[in-house]
Each structure stands twice: as C-alpha cells, then as structure tokens.
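Is phenylalanine placement plausible here? Inputs below.
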Amino acid sequence: LREKYLALISAAADEAALEELRVQAVGKKGEISLQMRSLGKMSPEERQVAGPALNALKDEVNSALTARKFSMADAALEERLKSEWLDVTLPGRQRPVGTIHPISQVWEEVTAIFADMGFSVAEGPQIETDWYNFDALNMPGHHPARAEMDTFYTHRAEGDDRPPHVLRTHTSPVQIRSMEKMGAPMRVICPGRVYRADYDQTHTPMFHQVEGLALDTDISMANLKWCLEEFVKAFFEVDDVELRFRASHFPFTEPSAEVDIRCSWADGQLKVGEGDDWLEILGSGMVHPKVLAAGGIDASKYQGFAFGMGIDRIAMLKYGIPDLRAFFDSDLRWLRHYGFAA
Ligand code: PHE
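Reply from A.M.:
I modeled the complex. Tokens:
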C-alpha cells in the first residue's frame, strides 16, 4: 500500500488528481481508512502491531500529498516567472515628441515682441455680432466693405429677425471690446482666428491675424511707423528694414495705409531688408473718430493708431513657405521638411 500510494502521488499530474488520490487512500471510504476500521476485529496482539503501522502510513500519505501540492504550486510559479521575465537591459522605446505648430510659434513670437513695447494681450470671441464686426467699425448696414469681406453668416431660426451672428472676418472687433473694457490710454494686441469664404494658394477660410491698437493723447503715424519697424527688425532678425506706407482705405481708419517691407527673393529664399521687391504685410491707420466713439472713447481728447497683420502671412515669409494651405493639412512629412516636427 505504502509503495503504491507514494508512487501514485509523485506521478499525479495536477491538483485534481491529487485530490482524487486523497479520497481513494485516506477519505472516509478510502483504502487505508477501511483497514483502520477493521482494527476492531483483530486480536489485541495483532492490533498492537497493525494499529501504529496504519497510523504511520496514514500520516506518511498525508504529508506526501501536502508536499506534492506545494511542489506543484512552486512549479506553476516558476513557469509564470519564466514567461513574465523582463529584460531590463533592453534599450527604451523611442516615442515621438510633439512640437509647437509654426503658426502658434509665430503667434507667440509676435506677442512677445509687442509685449516688450508695452502692449498687453486681449482676445475676443470668434463668433461675433455684426455690431462689433462691422457697425462699430464704421461699416453700417449696406456698406460695400461688408460684401467684400466674404463673410460667413450664422443661420437664424424662421421668424427670428435679429441680425445674424458672423464668424469674425478680422480681429478689429477686439479693438472695440478693448476700448469698452480698458478705456484710454492703452496699448493692446489681439491675436486670433478669423474667417472668410476664400480658398486658394494664399487664402484659407480660417486664418490668423494680430490686431494692434494704441490710444493716447499724443499719438501719430510716426509712432505707428516706429513700432512696426521695431517689430519687423525683431521678427525677421535683421538690423535694418525699409517699410513702405501706401495710402489705402479702411472704413475704420483715417488716414489709412497698407505697409510693405523691402525684400528680395533669390533661389526661393526670402531676404528681408534688401532687394527690389515689396511684400505687403498689414493694413493700418489712425483710428477713425467714429470708431473711438463707438468704443466709448472721448475722441476730442484721445487718438490712436491701429493695424491688422496676417500671422500666417508673416509665417510664410519668415519660413519661405509658398502655399498657405499646407499649414492646416497636419501632414507630418511637410512639418518635418520645414523642421517643424521631429
Ligand atoms: N481689419 C483689416 C483687415 O482685416 C486690417 C486693419 C486693421 C486695417 C486695423 C487698419 C487697421 O483687412
């Protein structure tokens, strides 16, 4: 019996087989238990020999069962450790690192340069009322400039005859909002997204502008010129620039000027500050008295300059990018080609 059970136990394949063996040997009706029950029918002499022998056998089988059970658990753990083995000497996996989009970079650079000149930053909503986007900027009801702006209008429910909201067509409405909030004197720049229904190599329906506004009791075009020169030098990292102020017209400035910078194109490389080409970068002028009034500013005491510059446009110039649309394609290959992504 002893040899039989010890051999079976050490050959058992799993815990279920062990349990079966336990029942078969030392369970209530197990082979060893039955023999122990028959001790009663033996003579005292026989019992004295068989009793301790059977008890010892029972103990031995029980501890063999327990030992085998532990060794099975150990083996299982060994297996698991083998399969979950971790090679701490492997080199780490490279994960791509995100980068700042070129438009965001330029946005931040422009903000920083004007901050150095004492301009604070203001922002306004991208969905505007037509009061802020047009009327307050001296473009009443049927002003032709409204039609020229390729405006996106929001839809109003039938019977709702309030004027529709618009996606702002420029950052100039933030001029009015800033006047209302801060009064005069003040210096702000307002970077942000603007929208016009237009699409070609140099136009996308969403683009970016930065508005500048300076109000005080003694401000002239000369201040505007100085600020813009300082900005262009800092932004394009050149010591000298030449700006050209071309007389123009905007309903919200009088006089108005569009500003070009002297540059050259050679081998697709743009050089700012030299050459015979001129590139337009912004619209500007002295804030129209009606606009000051709409913003609640006393036009007999304060005057100021304003400008609106295309952020995307100066980004294209700085990095020599011919197609504006590529900025918004999210094509990693393009971003890498221009060094904007790792
Ligand atoms: N808002 C004008 C535009 O989008 C630019 C501009 C701003 C012109 C401020 C003059 C003064 O074209």
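Short version: The mean pLDDT is 91.
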